[in-house]
Specification:
alpha+beta; conserved putative lor/sdh protein from methanococcus maripaludis s2 fold; elongated
Length: 391
Amino acid sequence: MDNNNSNGNSSSSSNSNGNSYCYGLVVIIFLFILSSFSYVSLAFSQTHMHQPVMENAKEIWTCSMHPQVKRDKPGTCPICYMKLVKAEIPKNINSQIQPMGHAAFQLSQERIQMIGVKTGVVQRKELFKSVRASGRVAFDPDLYSAQSEYIEAIKQAQRTGNSNIPDIKQSAQRMIESAKLRLKILGMSDAQILKLKSTEYLNQNLLLHQAGEDVWVYAEIYEMDLPYVTSGLDVEVSVGFLHTKPLQGKVVSVDRVLNAATRTAKARILVPKAKAELRPETYVDVKILSPLGMQITIPMDAVLDTGTQAWVFIDKGQGMFEARLIQIKFRVEDEVVIQDGLNIDEKIVTSGNFLIDSESRLKAVLMEDVATPSCQKGQHWDAGMKMCHPD
């Protein structure tokens, strides 16, 4: 009897364990199916929320918390389930190339005043570049000696001109050419050498000079400024201890050879009849005025430059702004010379650029799908991959 009860209890316990195992297995399967369904739903929503809005859509609805969500009709955000709000579609503007990540936009007058926007116009005007350099009053015994040798070589050639011995004539001519080459290496121009040819006695102003005599000034011009420095340019020479107006001079020549250590070339400047008595090797400040001709210019504050791209913001009127890529020719102090991208008298933003840039970038995020390429039926545009993907 006991054995029968024991067998019955054992059978009942086995059945209970089996039922628990089946129940647990059902729960696990149900949870797996539920999680899979959630994952598929989430992937579906994330995939379709980037579907492009048709370019001819009259309205665009977006989420204020998730601007990447866009619809062509009201609804709720598939991410946070907030109500979609209507986004503003900018008016079409016949604009030139805009920098990547920017879009045209419109601001109210109150918003413009709050940002502190100031504007200017693109101008065409004559520019001058001020090349500033350090200099010194010349003390150049090497050049003085080379000039003396050249004059003496010419006199020697004249004395042997009537000689019947060809070697003597050729030797005198070689001495002239050798002395001439040395003068060129030391920085004298062809015009200076030609003028020196008719000189009988050298002026000692390369060594010592007195008040009222011509003074030579040597200025060290950096390599990047050399294209702007040529013979004949006007020069202002300032001497600190004199506390007077700058001395006026002209560039006579520029060395053909760079200094390997300083990467500069020597500009020789002649200050005629300097009233002050300047000691050799006196330190001076030099400003050379180089004309650049008529150029299209804008203020430097108007330009946003990343190093690879540069752009400005055009004020189109009625609160409408657009970004415009430009090509910079060069910079002159606080102005930028434009190679391409702007027209004379166009109105540009000169203050508040960074906030204007933020507005443009935000509008581009909201409106990036308006200009999105159309995909075939059953596909959507992936902005990140810049290609169509199956739905």
